[in-house]
Amino acid sequence: NKRTWLYVSLAGFFLTLIVFVIFILFSARAAEYGITKSIYYIALIPAGLFAAAFLFGALRSYAKYTGENKFGKLELTGPVVLFCLVVVGGFVFAEPESTFSLTVRVSSQADNSIINKGELILDLGKQRLVRQIDGNGEVQFSDLPAQYVDSEVKLIPKIEGYKLPSLDPIDIPESKVIYLALEKIKDSTLVRGSVLDPTGNSASNAVLNFNSGLAACTTDSIGNFSVWLPLAAGNSVLLSASINGTVKYREYVTIPETQPIIIKLK
């Protein structure tokens, strides 16, 4: 009877609501794997079932669709018409903004060998995406907004012993594949340590600058920092530390091999 179909419709409505809430909550993670559209399509199925149950069960509606294509004649009647309209129409007309995938292939500039360890950061508008380089030396950035197809992007490698030959932005080619050839750093040392304020407490968000732009980093919430310097241990560098734009420390320090550096601000 109509009341039974009404209960079925209400159950379908809440099921649809739950599915779409889950879709919204986990859409960012789904986008990382490039399956956003697939999940959205699946989410439309309970919406189509709920709409068909309500209109044809509770309201006793009727519908018929007849069409022809190269495969022959198609005739649909009853609830299946609305189900198809919701699922197909929702996917076609309410489709999320079109996206594209960008592939970055990382290699060494010296011998063209594949680099398959480390991370790659992509700055795209206000987005910052971090991906691991896979065993083939590739990084996939999926579901990027289509508005950036013809724009420039900034790629930042976090790979031990390598750096970008140029800091200029990179144009996205028509093939959507960027070949990133990195320059090998002849000598590099990982410098780590902590920054203390004049009272001896940890200084968070202190900006450290080595040799006026050779390398820079910011301390974490407990005043610790780590940064790769393109110099061998034993070299002397000018280190400056600032808080909110004000320089609180500026002295020459010797790059240690392993021991941390302790910096006390003035």
Highlighted features:
alpha+beta, 4-stranded mixed beta sheet, elongated
Quick summary:
By secondary structure, this protein is α+β, with helices and mostly antiparallel strands. 26% of the residues lie in helices and 39% in strands.
**Silhouette:** elongated
| Number of DSSP-assigned strands | 17
Main β-sheet, spatial strand arrangement: 6-3-10-8
Main beta sheet: 4 strands, mixed
Rg over CA atoms, rounded to whole Å, is 28 Å
Q: Into which percentage range does the β-strand content fall?
A: 35-45%
Helix vs. strand class: alpha+beta
Amino- and carboxy-terminal Cα gap:
82 Å
Task: Summarize the amount of helix as a percent range.
Answer: 25-40%
SSE series: HHHEEHEEEEEEEEEEEEEEE
Mean pLDDT: 82
Low-confidence stretches: none
Number of continuous helical runs? 4
Description:
By secondary structure, this protein is of the alpha+beta class. Helices cover 26% and strands 39% of the residues. It has helices at residues 2-25, 27-32, 36-58, 79-93; strands spanning 64-69, 72-77, 99-108, 119-124, 127-132, 138-145, 152-158, 162-163, 170-171, 177-184, 189-196, 207-210, 215-218, 224-229, 236-243, 246-254, 261-264. The strands form 5 sheets. Strands 6-3-10-8 form a 4-stranded mixed sheet, with no helix packed on it. It has a 4-stranded antiparallel sheet with strand order 5-4-7-9, with no helix packed on it. A hairpin with a 2-residue loop joins β4 and β5. α1 (2-25) runs antiparallel to α3 and α3 runs antiparallel to α4. The protein is elongated, with a radius of gyration of 28 Å. The protein starts with a helix and ends with a strand. The model has no long low-confidence stretch (mean pLDDT 82).
